[in-house]
Design brief:
homodimer; 528 residues; alpha+beta; 6-stranded mixed sheet; 4-stranded antiparallel sheet; 20 strands
Amino acid sequence: MVRPVCARPLAVAVALLGWLTLSATSLRAQEPRPPEVRFTTEEAFDAAKLPAYAGRHDATYAYIDAHLPEHLEQLRRWVRQPSVSAQNRGILEMANLLAEDLRTLGFKEVALVPTSGYPGVWAYYDAGAKKTLVVYLMYDVQPEETGWSVPAFDGALVDKPLGKLLMARGAVNQKGPERAFLNALQAILDTEGKLPVNLMVAAEGEEELGSPHYREVIDKYEARLRSAEGVFFPMPSQDPSGNVSLPLGVKGILSFELEARGGERGGPTRAEIHSSLKAIVDAPALRLVQALATLTTPDGNTIRVPGYYDAIRSPNLEEQRLVNGAARAFAGREEALRQTLGVARFSEGLAGRDLLSRWLFTTTININGLWSGYSGSGMKTILPHVATARLDSRLVPNQTPDAQLELIRKHLDANGFADVIVRKLAGYPPAQSSVEAPLVQAAIGVFNKYGATPSVAPRLAGSAPYYLFTERLKLPMVAAGLGHGSGAHAPDEYLVIEPKPDSKVAGLAQMEKFYVDLLFALAQAGGR
Amino acid sequence: MVRPVCARPLAVAVALLGWLTLSATSLRAQEPRPPEVRFTTEEAFDAAKLPAYAGRHDATYAYIDAHLPEHLEQLRRWVRQPSVSAQNRGILEMANLLAEDLRTLGFKEVALVPTSGYPGVWAYYDAGAKKTLVVYLMYDVQPEETGWSVPAFDGALVDKPLGKLLMARGAVNQKGPERAFLNALQAILDTEGKLPVNLMVAAEGEEELGSPHYREVIDKYEARLRSAEGVFFPMPSQDPSGNVSLPLGVKGILSFELEARGGERGGPTRAEIHSSLKAIVDAPALRLVQALATLTTPDGNTIRVPGYYDAIRSPNLEEQRLVNGAARAFAGREEALRQTLGVARFSEGLAGRDLLSRWLFTTTININGLWSGYSGSGMKTILPHVATARLDSRLVPNQTPDAQLELIRKHLDANGFADVIVRKLAGYPPAQSSVEAPLVQAAIGVFNKYGATPSVAPRLAGSAPYYLFTERLKLPMVAAGLGHGSGAHAPDEYLVIEPKPDSKVAGLAQMEKFYVDLLFALAQAGGR
C-alpha cells in the first residue's frame, strides 16, 4: 500500500529534491501560512566527486556471466510462486521457499518468525567478518489486476524496445531484484568461499498491506540488528534512460478517514432517505464537505489546521547541499515531468529548486477517496446517511502521525465539527539516512564505478516504514541497485533482463555484479 | 426517477404541511438567511366540512362486486406484462396492450404517439358530455431488484396481515390502480351505457426515466387537452391504517452535478497520480469540497448562494389554511415520523407547524451522491484527477430550475470557482392545484362519502413533472383514490386486494367504486 516503489514509475521525479525553510514566526501564528523556502547555502552535493569503487572481483563476475541462464531461472521460479498478501494466496509457500533458498545458500540460522499476521523470515549468515549488513526483503506481491498481456504468474520472457524483459507480477517489486541479490551471494560463495560481510535477512510477507506487523520481527531481533552497519534493500534504481536516483529517505504518512453520519445531532441514522426530506433532516454529506473544507485554503494547497506545520524542523546543511545538487540535475526537466504526470501546471506555477523544495519538504493533506450515496448511472434522489473521505498526509521531519492526527481532531472540535468521526487507518513517521554513512558512500562508489553516478536526494516524496531501521535501530538504509523495471502495481510489471546493446540500463548480470561490489565495498569502508 | 410515489412509503409524512413566510428584506440581503415562517391567518382548512358526495350508483357497484374476480385478473394480466423502461423490456408490448384495452372499452380514438423515446398512448372517449377529464397514465415500471419473495412478474396473490395482496412489480406503481380505473369504466359502461364525462387518456412509457419526452405527447394534443376540466392520476392514497393524504401539488426539482477536474489551472488531467505528488500538484477532490462548502452554512441547512430564496413567493391564504389544518392532524406525530425515518432529531429541533412549514415550503440543496478516487477496502494512496457530486434542489413556487442553476453558477464564479464544472441533469418547476378546483372538491366529496376524509396539503415535498398540466395547460390535477399499497421501488411491491375485515383500508372493489363516484361527481360539479 504505502510503498517506496510507488515512486518508481516516476523515475524522472525521483531526481527532484528541495529544501524548505520555515520561519518560526509564520509557524506559530494563529492562521497557518504556506511554509517559506529559504536556503542558507548554495553549495551543491555532487556524487561524481566521490571515488569510484576500485575493487575487482573478476572470478565472481565470470561466474555470474557463466551462470546467467540458471540465475534467470531462479527469478522465474520466484515469480511463478504467487504470494499475494491481500488474498492470502501462496503466502506460506513463498515464506518457505525463501527460507529454503537461504538455507541452500549457506545461512546456518534460518527461521520463520511468527507475527500477528503472516510470518517474517529471519536468517543469519556468519562470515566471521567485522561488519554485518541487514538485508530487508519482502516476499509478498500485489494482486493481479486486469490488463495483463501475459499470465501474471508465468515468468514470461518478452522482447520489447527496452530489450528482453521478465514480465510477471513481482518482476521488479520485489522478487526479481531480491532473487538477483541471492544469485550474487551464490556467485561470491562459489568463487570466494565466503561472503565479505555477515548478513542478517529480516523479511516480511505483508509489505503490500502496509507492513502492519513487521515491527514484531524487529522486536525479536532488535539487539542483534542494532550491531549492523546498515540496512540494504535491493531495488533497481535506473530509469529507462539509465539515469540513477538515490533518495536517502522517505516521507512518513498518516492515513485516516473523516466520516459524517446521522446521529443524535440529526440526519438519518439507519439508511438513506428520500431527498425530499432534506428540508427537515440534516445531510451528513453536506456536513462532511464542510468539515473537509476547513482543512485547507480554497486552492487545497495550504493546510489550515492550527499547528500543522509546527513540528517541521529546519533543514540541515547536508540536506540543502543535496537539494542544490539535485536542482542542477533537474534543470529544464519540468516540462518532461509535467508530461509524464499529465499535469498542465504545478501548484502556484512552481519550478526549479522551488518545485523540488516544495515536493520533498512540505507536508500535505490529500483526499484519496470520497464517497457517499449513489454514484451509478441515472439519478437517485436520496439523502445519504453516511459520507466518508479517505485522506493521507505525507509527513516530513519531525512530524509524527499521532500528533498530526490530534491536531486535526482538535481543529475539527474547535470549529464545531465534534460530530465528524476521525478514524486513523495507518501511519508512520519519516525516515532518512545521511549521505555520510559508509553504506551510502559505498553504494555511491559502486554506482560511480559503473558510470552511473546517482542524483542523490535527501528523501522521496513517497512513504515507506523505514523509520523502523533509521529511527528505531539508528541504522542507515540504502534501497538501491543497477537495473530497471516498472509496473509495480500495474499490468505487465517487468524487469529488464538483457538490455538492447546501446542501452545504459543494466541487465541481470550487471545488477548482480553491483550487489557483489557493494558487499565488498562495505567490508572495506570505514565504520559508521 | 423523481417520483410522486416516492413519498408513499412515508405515509405519515404525506400528512405534513407547512407554510413559510419569507420577509422581503431577508431575501434581498447580500448574505442569504433562513426563510422566516410567518402566518397571517390561523384559520384551518377542514375537508370534513365539505359535503360528502351524495350520488348512488348501485347498479354499477353491484356489477363491480359481481365481476371482482375478472377485474382482479385484469390487474394480474397487466403486471404479468413486464414493461421496464430502464431496460427496454416489454415496453412496446405494454403500450399495445394498453391501447388495445382502451379500444376494447370503447375509446374510438386510440393511437400510439411517437416521441423521441418510447411512444405515448393517446385515447379519446366521447361521451357527448359537457365535461372532459384527462387521465394521466404511466405504462412503464421500475426494474426488478433482488430480494423479492415471489417472482416479480407473476401476479402473485399472497395473504399477509394487511389482507390478500397482489404482490408484483407495478402492483401499486402504477398498473394496479390504473387497470382498476379501467375496470371502473367498464362497470359504468356495462351498466349505464356511457360515461358521465368525456375522457382523454394521455399515457407515457418513460415515467420511471423521469418523463424525458412526455412533453412531446402534450405538444401534439395541447389544444384539446386545454379544453378539459382537469387531470386525474389513479393513485391509492391510504396509509396502512386507512388514513388518506391529498397533496395538491409537488415541489419542482433541479438535478445537477458539480465536478472538479485537473486542467489548465492545475491538477492531474489524464488519470489519478500518486498521492506523494500532492505537494506540488493541485487536488481536484479538495477543490470540489471547497466549492460544495460554499453552497450552505456549516450545518448544511441554509443556502448561501445569493438570491437562491428570492424567487419564492409569499404563501396565499388558501395555502396557510391548508397547512393550519394539516398541522392539527399532525399534532403529536413527530415521534412516529422520526421513527419511520430513523432520524433522532429534525433540523434545528423543528416540530409541529414549524416542521410542516419548513418541509413543504423550503427550497433545498442536497447531495445525492459524492465520488472521487478509491473507495474500496484497504488503502490506495492516490491523488484523483476528478471528483464529482450529484445534487438535487427541491423547488417551491416561483423557483425554476434554470434560474436556480444560474444563481449557483454565478455564485461559484464570484467565489473563484469558475474552474468547477456545473452540469445540469434534469429539472422542472413545481406544480400546484387549488383546493377550490371542482375536480379537487369532487375528490374530497367522494372521500368524505366513504368516511375517509383526507388531510389536504398544498403540496408534497417530493417532485413530479405535473407542471405540464398545472402550469402549461392550466389544468388542476388530482392524484388520488382509495386503496393502499407500498414498495413502489422496492422488493415485494404490493396492492391490497381484499383487506382484513377490521381494516379501514379499501380493497379492489372499493377502489373501483371510488373512481366511479369521482367521474359522476365531476360531471355534477360546477365548471372550473
